[in-house]
Amino acid sequence: MIFTSDNWAGVHPKIFTAMEAANKGLQGAYGADGTSAKAGALFDEIFERKVKVFFVTTGGAANGLALSALVPPFGAVLCHEVSHVQMDEAGLPELYTGGAKLLPMAGAGGKMTVAAIDEVMRVYGTPMVHHVQPRALSLTQATEYGTAYTADEIGALAEAARGHGLRVHMDGARFSNAVARLGCKPADITWRAGVDVLSFGATKNGAMAAEAVVFFDETLAHEFEWRQKRAGHLWSKARFLAAQWVGFLEDDLWLDLARMANGQARKLADGLKALPSVTIEQDVDINEVFVAMDDALATHLRAAGGAFYDWVYPGDLWQGRLRRLVTSYATSDKEIEDFIAVASKL
Question: Domains, the chain, ranges and CATH?
Answer without folding.
Answer: 12-252 (3.40.640.10), 258-345 (3.90.1150.10)
